[in-house]
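FORM 12-B: Structure-to-Sequence Request
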């Protein structure tokens, strides 16, 4: 089998997340600068190897003050830990188009295993003859597992920032 390399199409990809704020609303954000690649045996994704890296300082939640706080030592400490990285350990088919992606997520100087749900959109040619594939990735992590512990208690009970982070990722790759 020939190894096939797939490169991210950043114009058609999003790395998003949501976190509870004040226990009752979600704040959404994303990383604006990232890179990802996949290696497969031919066009077979059963043994796919995934790699991802994102620039922490590209975080955007639509609020400059909040983004600055997220980059500070209270949260990501972007000056000391400028990247988020993921490297897959397995990609297992569950049903047609449904997979589990397992790997090692490195964030804030800590590496931990994660398992994510993937909807695999198959392969298609674009109008310019490029073969593309699309994946929708979702999952949850607890930010405290990576040492992102900052919080503030609320007068009414509970905390300002939720511990659970929901990942919502849309990826489009181009066959090289």
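FORM 12-B RESPONSE
SEQUENCE OUT:
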């Amino acid at each position: 089998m020939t190894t096939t390399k797939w490169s991210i199409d950043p114009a058609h990809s999003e790395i998003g997340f949501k976190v509870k704020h004040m226990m009752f609303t979600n704040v959404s954000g994303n990383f604006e600068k990232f890179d990802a690649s996949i290696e497969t045996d031919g066009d077979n994704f059963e043994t796919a190897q995934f790699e991802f890296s994102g620039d922490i300082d590209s975080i955007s939640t639509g609020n400059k003050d909040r983004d600055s706080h997220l980059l500070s030592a209270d949260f990501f400490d972007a000056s000391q830990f400028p990247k988020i990285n993921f490297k897959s350990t397995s990609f297992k088919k569950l049903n047609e188009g449904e997979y589990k992606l397992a790997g090692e997520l490195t964030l804030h100087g800590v590496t931990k295993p994660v398992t994510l749900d993937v909807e695999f959109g198959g392969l298609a040619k674009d109008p310019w003859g490029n073969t593309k594939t699309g994946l929708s990735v979702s999952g949850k992590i607890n930010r405290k597992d990576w040492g992102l512990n900052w919080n503030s208690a609320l007068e009414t009970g509970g905390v300002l920032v939720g511990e659970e982070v929901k990942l919502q990722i849309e990826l489009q790759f181009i066959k090289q």
